[in-house]
């Protein structure tokens, strides 16, 4: 009884899986990068800039 006759063909499965994995990794990484940039980085920079603007204005009033 030949063992190869009972196995399905695997043509293209590795390539499809690799493309899927790369697409998910790049898409997810980009989405998380944007979430960090606009959710954490930009607000912290705005808080820092507001602090230094307030400090500068209080020093100039003295």
SS field, number of helical segments:
1
Radius of gyration: 27 Å
Task: Give a count of the beta strands, DSSP E runs of length 2 or more.
Answer: 0
The overall average pLDDT, rounded, is 89
Globally, the shape reads rod-shaped
- What portion of residues is helical? over 70%
Protein name: Cytochrome c oxidase polypeptide VIIA
Subcellular location: Mitochondrion inner membrane
Keywords: Membrane, Mitochondrion, Mitochondrion inner membrane, Transmembrane, Transmembrane helix
GO molecular function, one term: cytochrome-c oxidase activity
Sum this structure up briefly.
The protein is mainly alpha-helical and 62 residues long.
Description:
By secondary structure, this protein is mainly α. The protein has a domain at 26-62. It is built from 1 helix and no strands. The chain starts with 12 loop residues before the first helix and ends with a helix.
Keywords:
62 residues, mainly alpha, 1 helix, 0% strand, rod-shaped
Summarize the topology.
Elements: H1 13-61
